[in-house]
Every structure is written in structure tokens, then in C-alpha cells.
Amino acid sequence: MKKLVLMLVLLVSLGCLVLVMTYGRNQQKRNDDKSPTVSEAAGDSNSDEDDLSSLVNPTPEVPKAGAEDDLELVGDLTGSDGENPAGDAPKKTNKVIVLDPGHGGKRTGAVYFGVMEKDVTLKVANYCRAYLLNNYENVEVYLTREEDIATDPDIKVELEQRVIYAKEMDADVVVSLHFNSMESHLGRGAEVYCSRRENIKDATFELGEDVMAELVKLGITRRGVLSKKSNDMFDETGDPYDYYAINRHCSTYGIPGIIIEHCFMDNKEDAEFMSTEEALAELAAADARGIAKYLGLKKKSE
User: Residue 115 and residue 208: Cα distance in Å, rounded?
Assistant: First the structure.
């Protein structure tokens, strides 16, 4: 009996001990739940970084669709008509002249009295360019050749290449420089050949007359401002193309283009006239003044 009572006392004591231990654990857990975490006690470092970031690089306010001020801002950025000015092509401010010194390389042109046409055309082109650049504003001048060369073994290809070059330069005019000759050796004076094609006819004749007027002032005989039709090339309506390739290709590419035959190399009087550098410079200056008049160039001294 005593043993039974002793066992019951031990069981009750053990149960009380378990209850005390369980109560202690639950109380600690409740206290832990109420205590701040490490990040909370330290101020939560991630939250602080986000706050600093927003101060240094504040998030821009998203504009409200339909807001009046926002619409005005968009208008300011794109232009009053709603088009983006950044996409507009820059306006052309200078007049562009392409001078074509005739012949070159093995293609000498006329040769009389020890003078080759290819040489004097290049000299006149350089003098003409210098005169234009020195005396007029807002002008660009390019040459189809800068030295004694032929750009292609096929003359037909080369002549079109010269006009293609002018098109690439966005030329306002093409002026091909030449000197003349004829079998009878009786020719004397200047000729200007223009296009007979409707798209550039009027422009070329106006340019040709302006140049001829300046050449005549030098005492050169006027033989005419002319056009010549092809004998074997016709458009779809049967109308002949221009005879001379420069005129013909200029019409095709839509550029007013003329050919200046300054004087006759095989005529003694003309040959004497063009025998000095000063005379070639005078011819070039006359060409330049005629071109400038046609294009409406403003003199630098004005």
C-alpha cells in the first residue's frame, strides 16, 4: 500500500514539472513574438536604401493623360504642327556649280599651234572656280576632273559619269568647258550649246545667253546660243534627244547643263587671243559672271 501511494506521489510531481516547463516555453515564445527583429531594431537597411535612392534619383511623376500642360509640352518637343523637326532635311543654302573641263587623258580634244584642248579647258575651269569662290557668297564649285585623266575607257560611260557626279553634288547647273575647231578652219567666235528638251530647255537658254553676253564683252564674236538634235536617238514620242551627250544626260538627270565653245583653236585670230594665261583667266571670269547672273549670286563686296 505504501508503495502504491509513493508511486502516485511521484507521478503527480512529474506531471507538475512537465506543466511548469511547458508554460515557461510558451511564455518565452510569446515574448519573442513581441520583441523587434534585428532588421527592425537596426532600422531595416533595405528600406533605408530605397529611401536614399528616391532622394538622389527621384522617380519622375507619370504625366496624366489629357492634362493640358502635358499636351503643351509634347507640342513644344515635336513642333507646332506635330512633326518632329529632327527628321526634317536641312535646307540647301548654297548654290552648287559643277564645271566640266572637256576631254582629259588620251582624249586630247583639238590640238593646234602646240596647244591641247584638254589642257586649256582644265586651266579655264580652275580660273573660273577661283573667280566664283573669291567674288561671290554662298556658292560651291566642283570640277568633274582635277587633273589630266579620263575616268573611264568608254567615252560614252565617262560623259554620263560626269553628269551623275553633278547629280550627286546636287548641282544647280553643269557647265562643260570646251574650245572649238572645224575642218575648213574658217570658224571664229563663241558658241553655247543648250538642251532642246522641255524639262531644262528654258533654263539652259537663259544660262547660255548670260554667259554669251559676258564673252562678247571681251570682243569675241557671237556665233550663237544653240541646240542640236540627235540624228539617231529618239524618245517614245519620236522626238529627238540632244545631240551632245552632256546636254542629253543633263536633261535625263534634270540639271540645266550647257556646253561653252569659247573660240576656235584652229583660227589664228582666236588662237592668238587665247594664247596667254591672262586671256584664259579673262575667259574664265566671263563664264563665272554669266553663271553668277543666272543663279542670282551676291557679290562679296555688296
Answer: 26
Task: Specify the 3-state DSSP secondary structure of 278.
Answer: helix
Count of other CB atoms within 10 angstroms of residue 131: 21
SS3 141: strand
Count, residues in the chain: 302
The x, y and z cell numbers of residue 280, run together, are 584664259
Question: What is the pTM for the complete model shown?
Answer: 0.71
Q: Would you say 140 and 173 are in contact if contact means Cβ atoms under 8 Å apart?
A: no
CA distance 130 to 35: 92
- For residue 29, give the C-alpha cell: 515564445
Q: Can you give the pLDDT at residue 92?
A: 84
Task: Name residue 227's beta-bridge partners.
Answer: 194
> Would strands 173-180 and 111-112 be described as parallel, antiparallel, or unpaired?
unpaired
E-strand spans in 47-123?
A: 95-101, 111-112, 115-116
Q: Which amino acid is at 285?
A: A
Order of strands across the sheet that contains 139-143:
139-143, 95-101, 173-180, 257-264, 190-194, 222-227
Q: Which of 142, 213, 150, 146 is nearest to 173 (CA)?
A: 142
User: How many Cα atoms sit within 13 Å of 49 on the Cβ side?
Assistant: 3
Reported as a single tens digit per residue, the pLDDT across 183-224 is 999 999 999 999 999 999 999 999 999 999 999 999 999 999
The answer to whether residues 154 and 80 touch, using CB atoms and an 8 Å cutoff, is no
| DSSP letter (8 states) at residue 295 | H
255: cell is 540639271
**Strands (DSSP E) found in 54-105:** 95-101
List domains and CATH numbers for the chain: 100-295 (3.40.630.40)
Q: Of all helices (H) and strands (E), which one includes residue 271?
A: helix 268-273
